[in-house]
Amino acid sequence: MLELIRRRLLTALPTLAAVIILSFLLMRLAPGGPFDGERPLDPQTREALMTAYGLNEPLHVQVGTYIWRLLHGDFGPSLVYRDFTVTDLIARGLPVSLTLGALALILALLLGLLAGMVAAARPGSRTDRSLMLFATLLTALPSFVVGPLLVLLLGLWAGWLPVSGWGDGDVPHLVLPVVALALPTAGAIAKLARAGLAQVLAQDHVRMARARGLGWRRIVLVHALRPALVPVASYLGPASAGLLTGAVVIETVFALPGLGRYFVQGALNRDYPLVMGVVTLYAGLIILFNLLADLAYGWLDPRTRG
Amino acid sequence: MRAPFAILALILLAALIGPWLIDWRYDAIDWDAVRAAPLSPGHMLGTDSVGRDLLARTLIGTRVTLGVALAAALVSLVIGVGWGAIAGWKGGRTDEAMMRIVDALYALPFMFVVILLMVLFGRSILLVFLGIGAVEWLTMARVVRGQMLALRERPFVIAAEAAGTPPVAIVLRHMLPNIAGVAIAYLLLTIPQVVMIESFLSFLGLGVQEPMTSLGILLKDGVDDMDLAPHAMLLPAIVLVALLLCLTRIGERLRDRFVG
Questions:
Q1: Is the model's pTM score more than 0.90?
Q2: Which one of 3.30.40.10, 1.10.10.10, 1.10.3720.10, 3.30.460.80 gives the CATH number of domain B2-22+52-258?
Q3: How do residues A22-39 score in pLDDT, each as one tens digit?
Q4: Which residue in A258, A239, A240 sits closest to A248, CA to CA?
Q5: Residues in chain A closer than 8 A to B204 (CB atoms)
Q6: What is the ipTM of this complex?
Q7: Inter-chain contact A26–B116, Cβ cutoff 8 Å?
């Protein structure tokens, strides 16, 4: 297990470093700067600003300084939100985004696994086919379609749930964004769980268990579920990346004060340090989630521990 | 198989010739009919919050979305096939290094890289599809490389090598035609992905820019105006979902047939 972690980190850390350096260089290559406004600044002010933000140093020095500061948790000042550092903004947005993402992942797993189990119980039945059709539909519906549709139906027309905002992170405010974010992932998980279960249920040890007279529930939960979860586990990495991306849109649709909102605002305003900081953070998170998914994989299928 | 094809053909046809059959341009404003409901006189599907004909806008939006998607998918095809073919042909160390890079890139948040590119180089439509194409080629590269590795062992390739045919000619003339079917299947599967990315970007205001429109922009406009004119959101949503479903369906069928 430790060996696996070590090997993974060995590829993950250079990847992360490459992302940081590449995006930094791209940023400097780009035409236009943060101080190019409608009205040009007078040269002296501009020069002072450039010096203050360290933009006059040679490139490799800038990259070095940037990484050094990153290692100390300092993402630099935001160029647009004047009184905030990027670290402040991340500290404000990240809890919201993580709450949203974690709840959505849990919901997607619950719904997906449940649907997968029900469908796999009777392969080829009407329940199976309609559930899988529904799952396909869900995976094809991006969260920026599902979200507004849910708002329209349950928020505006039925009036059951608040349409947007975070409240205090209370349950009514959370329901719609979490559901909208979870549904596409739930569809994908349902398909994988069904395929995995159907395969495992056809194997000898399951037939054996059935011959011993065990009930279906016990067979699935004790004997079949764990090996059947392997394809689901290998999907967790991409799924978490998808949830992070989806959260950007969901936060915009529902006006939630999460990381994605700051990211989009930063992107629209060309707030370099903010965009870079968030991209770096997202890259780190995704690499972390992939690592966790690999570990889950090893736990589910002892043969892969190697 | 028939239904997805029929729906897709209908959408394609409508996007291609539809705009010419309508009296309104996508950016023309009808001051007398702001937020007209569907089926109102002169505007079959109503108008949006500034009085632009929704049918005309949806048709043009679909055209733009499909155009961008096709261009981006072709960019990804070129990069993916090139990368995969070189890795599969060279084999050994080169192959391993190239595939390691693909693995590493897989772990990255693509959407954010595309957004980063948009932020850096301005939000032009050219960049939208170049950027998307530049990040969506990984699966294609993997598939092509796998096929190339299998083909390398086949007698006709060995024969061509023995006959002294230059490697470039072997790859181009003998090997790539053999993987065309698989590549096309994956190209079709790339298109819905790309449609989704484009809509995502445009939805956030980072993709196609006004006054040009696309399904993502229409959706965004519709969401902003949802409480007063829900049809403005539903129309692009329906077209987008139909498009994604049909393309995925057709792509999956083709893939299963060729890879089987």
A1: no
A2: 1.10.3720.10
A3: 777 776 776 666 666 666
A4: A258
A5: 248-249, 252, 264, 267
A6: 0.76
A7: yes
